Amino acid sequence: MLILSNDDVRAVLPMAEALSVLEQAYRDFANGLAHGTTTRLDTRVTLSNTGRFFSFMSMEGTTPDGDLMALRFNANHEIFVTVNGDTKKAHLPSAPGARYLGLVLLVAMRDTRPLALMHEGYLSALRVGATSALAARYLSRPDAGDVALFGCGDQARAQLLGLAEVRRLRKVRVFCRNEARRAVFAEEMGAALGVPVIPMSDPRAAVEGADLVVAATNSLDPVFSAEWLAAGAHIGAIVPGEVDPATYERS
Question: With left for phi above 0 and alpha for psi between -120 and 50, is residue 113 left, alpha or beta?
Answer without folding.
Answer: beta
